[in-house]
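Lab meeting minutes (informal)
Scribe: AK
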Amino acid sequence: MRIGVFICHCGSNIAGTVDCASVAEQAAAFPDVVFSTDTLYACSEPGQDAIIEAIKEHRLTGVVVASCTPRMHEPTFRRAVERAGLNRYLFEMANIREHVSWIGKDMQANTNKSAELVRMAVAKLRLNTELKPKFFPVTKRVLVIGGGVAGIQAALDAADAGLEVVMVEREPSIGGKMAKLDKTFPTVDCSSCILGPRMVDVAQHPNITLHAASEVEAVSGYVGNFEVTIRKKSTCVDWSKCTGCGLCTEKCPAKKSYDRFNEGMGHTSAIVIPFPQAIPKKAGIEKEHCRLFRTGKCGVCAKICPTGAVDYAMRDQIVSVKVGGIVAATGYDLMDWTVYEEYGGGRYPDVITSLQYERLLSASGPTGGHVKRPSDGREPQSVVFIQCVGSRDCSVDRPYCSGFCCMYTAKQAILTKDHLPDSQSYVFYMDIRSPGKGYDEFTRRVQEEYRARYIRGRVSLVYPKGDKLMVRGADTLMGTQVEVEADLVVLAVGGEAARGAPHLAEKLRISYDAYGFFMEGHPKLKPVETNTAGVFLAGSCQGLKDIPSSVAQGSAAAAKVIGLLSRDMLESDPQIAQVNAGRCIGCGKCISVCPFKAIQETEARGLPKVEVIETVCQGCGVCNATCPQGAIQLSHFTDNQILAEVEALCRF
């Protein structure tokens, strides 16, 4: 083998603490190395051209580049060696930036370690073989999980590009949290006016099939060919017959049912259309509130329904669909704020959440847009907003910033003054975080024009005093304790991952963090991709974000899906597990540990064996480490290749 070695300076990132010329000189003496040099920036265009030229001039059959992380630049260098006529897998990288120069300042020690890493890469490369990818057809259909603003944007973009789209939403209507908002920051324009037309577009688009009140039951298959099972939950109303006339909701005698859409700030009937602009605008029965299901006596809605759509015996339906790509846009939920007992813990009716306050402010809300105290219906004159309830608080395991609370509190303070001109708003905050376009100007406006009083400090206690609430806290700028008398207290509750998000992540075979948010493939280079090919992220399921960011990420995820499914055939990665049938004893341990379900049982000459589904395997190597017989080897990372690296390191 004729190997070429290229040591990258990476400016001063590597060369500042590593003698790159010395490493190149040492590498020239390694077995099969016929060319070795150091270069300023190997990943630049001149650097890649130099590698290509060296391959041709020195007739190289393998290349080692010692530079930064393979996670970032390995595809770049593989493409370069391919342009020179080499197989892309006859290339190896040694990470001497993150693994050496960035973690130590000792020049001699760093130089020695870099040389050892290069020696290991050369030893592995000597055992590399040419790997060839395979090609398989794709299904030009995409699944969008979640019908919030991010999912809507992704679905519409993909559908406009000509792809078939299947949207699954667990609630009876799409719209997500945005549908519950009165106005949006920083423009203070109507949320429904922005979202409503997009929701209608979803319903009327010929390329979109909507499954509301549904959940993803199971996902199998691989990129380009996923098999998805969808459970359509029983609403006890046949939506193919329901016209959304609302007659059933008017006549239903169970008028004291919990109103989920209005966050419990009002009551509704047991059979309900979520809100006037709901898509689909269909009725559904809340069984826990329905008199027929609780007592066996009623049936009014079935009697008066003009189309006979009510069906009390309806059961869940299972639908299977084949898709080529999946966009997860499951959104977020508000954390359980009642853990803050010092704020009332749900005991005081006039301590409400920010989303409940949105419903009070909304003209379509339970009070018709009139701000009234839940306890007695009076208009509040003093409103206190408490920031960071469930954000930046390690005591409730929520150390992260939710990102949008500072802004929606400022918006609500403005709306409060618009609704109640004589009112006074107080905002207890830790820090004001307003990094978006026009956001900082917006927060200054609420203080300067609308005279909201911002108090920097934590609130320690909220307690009743007569018909008022006393809010006790600190003013850290003044260095004093303060106590404010309030008619209404609004908690800026932080967000958390949507309920069931980790369970869905396991179905999709993607990673999630300690708080349940889905993990992107790379925080900078792959912000909407995941570790499972063909599965993309959009909106707050990946991390809490505001509406503009969610819409942008929805479009980004759609662009990725469109690019993926624009091809008739996809290329599989050959770095996958391979089974030696002669050594396999069919114990099945590899099947039980495979996180991607890429190994299945088979039979050879009447004996139990296993085989790898090549298009599903992601090359993680868990099966390789588990197999007691050593019957499974990971292509490009075989036991012999890894042992060769170890021997090269331990040769002294």
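Next up, CB showed the second protein from the same session:
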Amino acid sequence: MVNRNLIRGLDLSEEEWESTLNDALAGVVPEEMDWGRDDIPMNSVVEGTVLRVDGDIVLVDVGYKSEGTISLSEWDEDEDPPVEGDVVKCLLEDLEDTHGMMILSKRKAEKSEAWQRVMESVNEGDVVTGVVTRKIKGGLLVDIGVNVFLPASQVDIRRPADIGDYIGRTIQCLVLKIDESRRNIVVSRRALIEAERAEKKSQLLSTLAEGQVCKGVVKNIADFGAFVDLGGIDGLLHITDMSWGRISHPSKMVSIDDEIEVMILNIDREKEKIALGLKQQTASPWERVEEKYPVGSKVRGTVVNVMSYGAFVKLEEGIEGLVHISEMSWTKRINHPNELVHVDDEIEVVVLGINREKQEISLGMKQTQENPWDVVADKYAPGTAVTGTVRNLTNYGAFIEIEEGIDGLLHVSDMSWTRKISHPSEMVEKGQTIECRVLSVDQQRRRIALGLKQLAEDPWETDIPSRYQPNQVLTGTVTKITNFGVFVGLENGLEGLLHISELADHKVDNPEEIVKVGDEIEVKVLRVDTDERKIGLSRKRVEWAEEDSIEAEAPASMSTMSTERKSDADLKGGVGGGGLLIDTGDSNDDESESEG
């Protein structure tokens, strides 16, 4: 439609305008004239002609109403720079920028055409070859004509430590997925390898046999062993099958990508598992171990490991024995083997036993020396006086070290002739040096009995009977009060029993109503029993005349004896069956002599 208002705004009249236009068209129908393309779709690839290059902008005519621009940086350094008249393929990104020019891209046009070529030749499940160009988050980019994504989990069967090592390598992959709308392709190298290995595995399993020696390549190393690729299937070379000797880690024997010869030990065809061995290619050092190391022989070895229960000693490569902590010393008290040995120490040992089936050897260190207990009976005969150090105290006695590793037991009953000892700490203390007398030696059980009181004569044989006579009046100190009477200290641990019936002329129900511990009281000796080692006392008879005491002694003793028998379980060494006397402790039952 003709815009009359626009024409009227010109200097020409309407008739003059039409005449001028007709002359210009020279008979050409307006519909046939090329006013410029207005049907180019967005993101389509078109051909254009370079009009000129202005700085870093290339002006291109693609036959549209306006020209388009391409950044000069889209030409690679190895390409010839554009010049006027060059024909170039470009992709329309936008119809108009701020200057009214179309925005074009040469590089995107190349990528679009490359994508189309790939779509024409590649389908899901195809095998493609490309070059790894760079590492991105989650995987690698592989150029197969266009960049495709290779996830890190699909690079290999076992994920490599650094997938960046693949950059620059030409690899083959299996196309897993194509997303045309997003122009995205995901590929897998692992799937291709697994498919190839599955085919090789079935072939290989049919040819392998136990005992066969074959070559393989170490593919992975763990703490427990190494995985070896036999050419389509992996076998496990366990750490215990690498060497007859001790190794701390498989990496001490093999490295990744090493080509090694291994023996097939076992094949589980159902689970497709293969056990491999390296040491089995040489003879086991245990085959003739009894001949090389007979029981009782002395050998030298090197300490290779120290545990809380003993030390392992290497006799030769592949042969190790255990020296138990109990076999390290005849006399020393060892809390941990490292008190005597350390790793790499060279020591002499004696072979105690061999178990070839379990591949175990028992060794001893102390057997290389003389056992001091073999001569202890000659060295410490009964009656010998010895000097030692108090090493330990127990409820029943003290252990005295008379030489390194040789202890004797000083029982509480052998500490004093007269004192009743409740605990050895009343007489000795740990670390104290004391003199004792050897009472007996049990060489088989390795025990020595010692006595402290035996250094002096038994006062009950001569001294006490001579100094303490019946009817003798003494002064003593109350040391203990019981429900059946009172213990009175006479001298240096010597005590007598003042029975409850001898406290007062009247009947006494509670001795504490009469006396208190620590009171000094006068008592009369009723009887001295040297066999039972007891002294019977009386308080109520102190003022009695001698003849009255003698007359009353018989019935009183009988009454006392009756009371004693009723209270026998409570006397605890106070009164025996013979009268109002005190037990000095010699009748105590011996406890076990173990240290506990």
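CB comment: The longest helix spans residues 546-566.
No objections, moving on.
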